[in-house]
Every structure is written in C-alpha cells, then in structure tokens.
Amino acid sequence: MPTRSISPILQRMLIQADEDLAVAKLIALHSPYRESVRFHCQQAAERYLKALFIISEDMYLFNDLPLDITHSLRTLLELLPDEIVQPEGMKEKAILLQTYSRASGVDAPSNEQSVTISEEICNWVKSELKKLN
Known about the structure:
The protein is mostly helical. 64% of the residues lie in helices and 3% in strands.
C-alpha cells in the first residue's frame, strides 16, 4: 500500500480515541459501571478502525458505506482491505466488546476485559498506521 499521511482531522479523531480509552480506564478503576466503560472502549476502537480505513483507502466511503453511519466494530473489521492482516481472534474480541445488552441475556465483559480488548484493537491499528506512513 502507498504511504499516506495523517490529516489534522484524523489526528484529532485519534486524540479523541485516546481520550475515550483514558476515560474508560479511569471509570474502570473507580466504579463498577460496565456499560460506561464498554461504551468508551468501543468508541476508542471504532475511531481507530475508521482512521485506518480512511488512510488505507484514501477515502471517506468504503464500498458505498459512509463511515459515519456504521458503529459496528465487526463490520469495520470485515471491510478492511485484504492487504491489512488482522491478528487472530480480533473480530471475536470486537464482537464481545459491543454485543452485550440487557435484552440479549449476554453477560457484559468485565471492565478489565473491555479495556484490554480496546487497547489491543487500538495498539494493532497504531502499528498498521505506522506501516502506512
């Protein structure tokens, strides 16, 4: 893939993602609020994945799917270009991070699990972004 630079808008998106992850860690340390932790973890991972799309594809649309209307980590991972090799189990971890709901009967990941999954996704994307720059 060609080398791409990170625009100021994308830099801001990544800063927001890092802030989301930092907030999730603070909440996880000081409270039992799983949904809030998971929300901020999901936001951080989503922003990093969207930045990777934009840089790798040099566009704001991918397969006619506007990136601002999908919040599914699974969808974002499934639509990554074939040249970007995902670590084994990444999609399953992303699904765990975002599939919990009271109505589903699925247990929410612990605060520690949510933070760990989000960190793994964000760190992996950071390493992919370095390869593209």
